[in-house]
Amino acid sequence: AQTVTQSQPEMSVQEAETVTLSCTYDTSENNYYLFWYKQPPSRQMILVIRQEAYKQQNATENRFSVNFQKAAKSFSLKISDSQLGDTAMYFCAFADSGAGSYQLTFGKGTKLSVIP
Amino acid sequence: DAGVIQSPRHEVTEMGQEVTLRCKPISGHDYLFWYRQTMMRGLELLIYFNNNVPIDDSGMPEDRFSAKMPNASFSTLKIQPSEPRDSAVYFCASSGLAGGETQYFGPGTRLLVL
């Protein structure tokens, strides 16, 4: 079974600074997908970024980028120029690529606070 | 696109009552997922459907929980009878394909069972 581990329950960062959230996972699969979701106080789950395991290039979305290390099974999220609106819970998630055996597995989350 | 729609957004009920949560997935999405989020257990997949057919309900906690998808644009999650330990946020999500396509979440239903 796949597992996703987020080792930082809470983090804080000064506004405009850069912060990196860690995520490791365990799988025997070779093809899979990884996601970061953001959950602000409103509780809405919002996709931040998505990475396909067969792509070596790290995904980026504006101020958000990932460092995907497949051999190390690591998938960290870097937030540049942090903004107050980035304050939220961040969940790392793993998805098996095989149709018919689909399940999205989430980590426990990292609570990020952006300090003005 | 309106996104995934869930109703009600908040539900307060008394132990023993029946609770029905509703979900409308994004039009054209073939997969629909029900999750539960609690502080103790985090986000758990309860059940998912493909083309209105339940594929995996191994996450449904017990027989008090049931889910249906009578058509491509509507699903329900029912708890009967409800218990205080069912208090949680219940999310519905949909996606276009299994195997890694992004799941888009609804706003969730916050359930409190007294």
Task: Explain the overall architecture.
The complex is a heterodimer of chains A (116) and B (114). Chain A has no helices and 12 strands. Chain A is an all-beta fold and 116 residues long. In chain A, strands 2, 5, 6, 10, 11 and 12 form a 6-stranded mixed beta sheet that branches. Chain A has a 4-stranded antiparallel beta sheet with strand order 3-9-8-7, with no helix packed on it. The termini of chain A are far apart. The model of chain A has no long low-confidence stretch (mean pLDDT 92). The model of chain B has no long low-confidence stretch (mean pLDDT 92). In chain B, the strands form 2 sheets. In chain B, strands 2, 4, 5, 6, 9, 10 and 11 form a 7-stranded mixed beta sheet that branches. In chain B, strands 1-3-8-7 form a 4-stranded antiparallel beta sheet, with no helix packed on it. By secondary structure, chain B is mainly β. Chain B contains no helices and 11 strands. In chain B, a hairpin with a 2-residue loop joins strand 7 and strand 8 (74-79). The interface between A and B is medium-sized, with 26 and 22 residues.
